[in-house]
Amino acid sequence: MRTALIDALTQLPDSLQSTVSEWLHASAFDATFTQAQVADMEAASGLSGAALRLALLPLAAAYAVTPISRFNVGAIVRGEDGTLYLGANIELTGVQLGQTVHAEQAAISHAWTKGATRLTDITINYSPCGHCRQFMNELNGAEDLVIQLPKSDAKSLHAYLPEAFGPADLGIEARLLADQTQGLTADDIDDPLLKQAVEAANISHAPYSGNYSGVAIETSDGRVFKGMYAENAAFNPSLPPLQVALIAANMAGYSWDKIASVALAEVVNSTVSHLADTQASLDAINPDIPLLYAGLRA
Ligand SMILES: [Zn+2]
């Protein structure tokens, strides 16, 4: 277990430390808390709902990978079924800052890769930046999303983002996290990792460019983490598929030195491409990581 998580445990209320420590030390811990675990923590600590999530924020921030800023942000999203998903910011050295992942994006896409289709709440240890407010406005159920910060009352996303610009302004009905499938096939692809990248592309959200795309990362011990492209009505806050897969790996406790190979699948008869940026980001992480590529036709 990473040192930052051990340090974060000591910042939890005393009543939670032994229970949470046991879960964290279990090899299957994947930076989520089930509804049953939340109930256990509420009973042990006397904290409920948002108060419990605020108390757990140091654990989320412990997943931050911040070689540039050393500024660790943690976020916890709550799915409709009560599951909590942690997230933290990720910075990549050697590429442009647009490749950065914010904690809110990490927690949201972490929930997405585990099948959540709608979120009720997000709890963050710092005020969400403008970029993240816009990213959250793309979500299925954005109009009901509640934001909780340590020293503010809970407020709706739209209290933080008045007069919002969003998908509806561009005539788009699809929303991030809502079930969608793009009908892309991998029939003529033999490589199993590329097939998984196609699976990710199939459930990606790219209604603006049509560049439905997905990444699959294979680790040196054989785990595979998939990432779907998450496009945004304001374009710049879009989250590339490599980043979503990196988030999934990071939240499962994998560091970049465990990445063995990566596959990218994307629709090529669209208006944008992830190939150059994916290659550049991987080169910055480790130029020896092979990148497999499949161009798909929508
Ligand atoms: Zn942000």
Automatic annotation (TrEMBL):
Its EC number is 3.5.4.5. The keyword Hydrolase applies. Pfam families: dCMP_cyt_deam_1 (PF00383), dCMP_cyt_deam_2 (PF08211). It comes from Salinivibrio proteolyticus. Residues 48-168, 188-298 form the CMP/dCMP-type deaminase domain. Belongs to the cytidine and deoxycytidylate deaminase family. Its cofactor is Zn(2+). Gene3D superfamilies: Cytidine Deaminase, domain 2. SUPFAM superfamilies: Cytidine deaminase-like. This enzyme scavenges exogenous and endogenous cytidine and 2'-deoxycytidine for UMP synthesis. The gene is cdd. One of its GO terms (molecular function) is cytidine deaminase activity. The active site is at E104 (proton donor). Coiled coil: none annotated. PANTHER family: CYTIDINE DEAMINASE. This is Cytidine deaminase. The keyword Magnesium does not apply. InterPro entries: APOBEC/CMP_deaminase_Zn-bd, CMP_dCMP_dom, Cyd/dCyd_deaminase_Zn-bd, Cyt/Deoxycyt_deaminase, Cyt_deam_dimer, Cytidine_deaminase-like, Cytidine_deaminase_bacteria. PROSITE patterns: CYT_DCMP_DEAMINASES_1, CYT_DCMP_DEAMINASES_2. Substrate binds at N89, I90, E91. The lineage of its organism: Bacteria, Pseudomonadati, Pseudomonadota, Gammaproteobacteria, Vibrionales.
